[in-house]
Fold this sequence. Notes:
Order of helices and strands: HH
Oligomer: single chain
Number of domains: 1
Shape: elongated
Number of strands: 0
Number of helices: 2
Distance between the termini: 16 Å
Amino acid sequence: xxxxxxxxxxxxxxxxxxxxxxxxxxxxxxxxxxxxxxxxxxxxxxxxxxxxxxxxxxxxxxxxxxxxxxxxxxxxx
Length: 77
């Protein structure tokens, strides 16, 4: 649990959340014309995915001490 208080842990959590946000958002933007996109819905959907990524990393941190569920990731400073 001590790893959860390090910058390396939070940097990994932020990287995972940003990646998840983009993975959810980019297909929505690319699915049609930008003028017809429901921007609040697309941002909300991608934001929800990012939030769930952070939640998953926090729960994994309680179990494994790192942001990955399987505990295979090592955090360097």
